[in-house]
């Protein structure tokens, strides 16, 4: 609908200018009678309202191009390589969660051949971050590369970090001297970072391996605040990951009194059970990772990721959102939650899906973090590996060492800045574009 403004000569109300100037005497501002009807016609034309909104100025090609570019930037920022839109969308997952399931019976897990019960002990504070690395018995080079790089860190940002390796039994006989079985015993004795359970080590047993590690943390590393599950071909930016967790969980200094009271109670009772397990009172619920959405099970027989109809019926639809198994973080309380309901979850061989299903049954949704790489491999770059990425996938032992050298090793925090001004401004967006071009 068109609107109109009053006369050009009149005010907002469109009053006659002659009357407006006339005053009380009515003598000032009258039109000379000699002008006659011509003056009156002209006056009416001037006083006629001018419609506004009935006419629109057509956009020039330049303005159209500018608006299109602005719209493209907004869409690219939200849903492109920056990952901002992905993180915002993940916040809505909690509203779709079903009611939490009641706890199930205790998990029946294989016994530990190398329990390494004292790995989290020692003087000082308990680990802020416990890193559990899934590895195969034969992957000694990968383990040594991690030990010589990020896995060798015992402290980051003033907080204790502990890295341990999870594995099962080799797929070959072990009686002969010099076999891999004896090598593992020697490796464990010298490195003191091996956890081995009594099951055949294979990709299809990753769920068993991961649950064994989480259960070990529950029993033997009770005050660890966060648990990172990752693989032996993943580079972990430990200092930045610790900073990210501190940022998401609040200032760690606020937890010190809780931790101290737990430590005293545990010392008096000489047990780590009950409410003390995994420092549940000291950390909030967090399930952080590279979230996968609406993934359908693979029905390809013999495939690495095959899931049978019995394991996941088609009536259940796609898997619920879950964090990529290449690297996800569970807070202490989230680990307890997963262990409580895991016995009621479908026996899936895909450990990351299994953890996601268990978390969902417990009322916990994953939180997406674009800095965790998922299955993406990022080319070696000092700025990306030192500042913006928390993990990077598919690194062989040589690349693991090169990445460590690139960021300056354990002295990385004291050398020149990782990024130039432009690199810092582009942030994770630059890293993801590089990965896309590299692939």
From TrEMBL:
GO molecular function ontology, one term from the record: N-acetyl-beta-D-glucosaminide beta-(1,3)-galactosyltransferase activity
Subcellular location: Golgi apparatus membrane
Keyword terms of this UniProt record: Glycosyltransferase, Golgi apparatus, Membrane, Signal-anchor, Transferase, Transmembrane, Transmembrane helix
GO biological process terms held by the UniProt record: ganglioside biosynthetic process; protein O-linked glycosylation
EC number annotated for this UniProt entry: 2.4.1.-
Keyword DNA repair: no
GO terms for cellular component: Golgi membrane
InterPro entries assigned to the protein according to its UniProt record, in alphabetical order: Glyco_trans_31
Main enzyme class: transferase
Membrane topology designation: Single-pass type II membrane protein
Family named by the database record: Belongs to the glycosyltransferase 31 family.
Protein name in the entry: Hexosyltransferase
Organism per entry: Oryctolagus cuniculus (Rabbit)
């Amino acid at each position: 609908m068109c609107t109109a403004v009053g006369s050009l000569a009149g005010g907002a109300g469109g009053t006659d200018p002659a009357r407006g100037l006339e005053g009380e005497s009515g003598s000032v501002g009258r039109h000379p009678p000699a002008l006659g009807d011509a003056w009156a016609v002209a006056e009416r034309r001037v006083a006629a309202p001018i419609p506004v909104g009935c006419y629109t100025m057509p956009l020039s090609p330049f303005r159209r191009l500018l608006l299109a570019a602005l719209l493209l930037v907004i869409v690219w920022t939200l849903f492109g390589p920056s990952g901002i839109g992905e993180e915002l969308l993940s916040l809505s997952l909690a509203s779709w969660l079903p009611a939490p399931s009641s706890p199930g019976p205790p998990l029946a897990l294989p016994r530990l051949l190398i329990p390494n019960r004292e790995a989290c002990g020692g003087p000082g504070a308990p680990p802020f971050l416990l890193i559990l690395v899934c590895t195969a018995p034969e992957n000694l080079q990968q383990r040594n590369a991690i030990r010589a790089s990020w896995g060798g860190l015992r402290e980051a940002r003033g907080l204790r970090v502990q890295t341990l390796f999870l594995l099962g039994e080799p797929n070959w006989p072990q009686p002969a001297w010099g076999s891999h079985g004896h090598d593992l015993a020697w490796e464990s004795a010298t490195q003191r970072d091996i956890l081995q359970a009594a099951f055949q080590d294979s990709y299809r047993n990753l769920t068993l391996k991961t649950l064994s590690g989480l259960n070990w943390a529950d029993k033997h590393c009770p005050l660890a605040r966060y648990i990172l599950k990752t693989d032996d071909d993943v580079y972990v930016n430990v200092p930045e990951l610790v900073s990210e967790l501190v940022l998401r969980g609040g200032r760690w200094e606020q937890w010190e009194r809780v931790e101290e009271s737990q430590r005293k109670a545990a010392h008096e009772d000489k047990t780590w059970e009950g409410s003390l397990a995994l420092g549940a009172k000291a950390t909030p619920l967090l399930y952080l990772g590279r979230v996968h959405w609406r993934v359908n099970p693979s029905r390809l027989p013999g495939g690495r990721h095959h899931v049978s109809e019995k394991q996941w019926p088609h009536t259940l639809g796609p898997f619920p959102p879950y964090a990529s198994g290449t690297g996800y973080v569970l807070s202490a309380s989230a680990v307890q939650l997963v262990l409580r309901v895991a016995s009621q979850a479908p026996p899936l061989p895909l450990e990351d899906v299994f953890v996601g299903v268990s978390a969902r049954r417990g009322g916990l949704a994953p939180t997406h973090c674009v800095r965790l790489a998922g299955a993406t491999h990022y080319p070696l770059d000092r700025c990306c590996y030192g500042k913006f990425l928390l993990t990077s996938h598919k690194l062989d032992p040589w690349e693991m060492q090169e990445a460590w050298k690139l960021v300056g090793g354990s002295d990385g925090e004291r050398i020149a800045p990782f990024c130039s001004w432009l690199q810092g401004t582009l942030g994770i967006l630059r890293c993801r574009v590089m990965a896309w071009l590299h692939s």
